[in-house]
């Protein structure tokens, strides 16, 4: 990969390859909304040489967004042009001319992983364990209607798919910086796709990216070196991945329950880590603990994590 110049004429030329006529998009309801961006469900007529209409998702800015948010969406566009992996969201096209920037991406029918987990129940040894259904903030157990019943095997498969997507991103030298269950999407057939590249940075040859002053990343997913020195590497993505494993096996609980974010850094440096959640296989907790090693170099590579999970899944068939 060669470093990208943000707005050279060659980049513009390259954009034309992705250009899709705005008038062939039929916007439907909002799928998700952030502070500055919104994702709309839409149908696209004649996209990617296909006849008829294709269900897609469109990422765009809200009116209140600032130039720096706009820059984030452009950089997400530039990054997505280069990524092709079954476990990473795929860019299908873009509207860059005569109006606001729209990124057209594949539609994932089951929405974000965090809500999907929260609406699911865990089946263990043939019975549905209602105890592991998502707990509301005041800790009442709430059993949702229409949710999936997931098995430990499903959760291990989710962990494996995310590890494979992250292995690919680290191979092409991308640091995600915001890996969390809320930023993973669930497509049909329980296929997961890593999404939300707004904060992703291309690290080129350097092995660390120093974040500038905007502190938008939630503390409880961040590695100690990111909290302390704004250092983001593939190894800090591995730390966040450990938190995602914890989110998986708790069916979307919020990490470090009861711990105020401002106390977290000193607790982590003092060696505190979350306990093994109920129903969490020992091997999966062992991976979490490796991801949460204080020295980034001691954390495993995504390749090794994917291999461990692959082996566990094979043993379970
Ligand atoms: N929410 C955010 N992005 C989405 C997508 N691509 N598909 C479905 N729901 C989404």
Automatic annotation (TrEMBL):
It comes from the Eukaryota. It is found in: Membrane. Residues 25-313 form the Protein kinase domain. ATP binds at residue 59. This is Receptor protein-tyrosine kinase. It comes from Potamilus streckersoni. The chain holds residues 703 to 1019 of 1138 of the full protein.
